[in-house]
Specification:
With 165 residues, the chain is of the alpha+beta class. The protein is 25% helix and 21% strand. Strands 1-6-5-4-2-3 form a six-stranded mixed sheet, with helices on both faces.
Amino acid sequence: MQRFVIKSTIYQYDSVEELPEKEQELVRLARESAQRAYTPYSGFRVGAALLLQNGSIITGNNQENAAYPSGSCAERTALFYANSVNPDSPVEVMAIAAIKKNGEPVDKPVYPCGACRQVMIESEIRYGVDQRVIFTGKDKIMAVASVKDILPLWFDNKFPDPGHV
């Protein structure tokens, strides 16, 4: 038997003001985007804001559907749109925010689902560029330098020998 240890580095900030100005703007835009989410079933509104290497900023939000699997999360909505209009520019930073029904940010940082993590890692692999991800709550902010920190055992085109263990 072999034993592998997987380590991730996660950064914690006590407020959004601790982030660089550009990232503070992404958090603000992610929260604004969450306000526009279509969530008639869950009421859980999530927004994402992406800073692309070319300087463009793309936002997206979750879009629900009565046939639940037909909806889309904020992260995937933003990434797919960014890749469709800026196919040659990788994502440098993604900020994710969720808001309560009263419009206030949720208390704890919100993290992407498994499907979104897979799409996010595909973006990193596609461009060969690590993507910083910021997870926001009302005050507490968490961040990782790469999607690999939140999905260390990813599926890619090298399966069944991905070489990342």
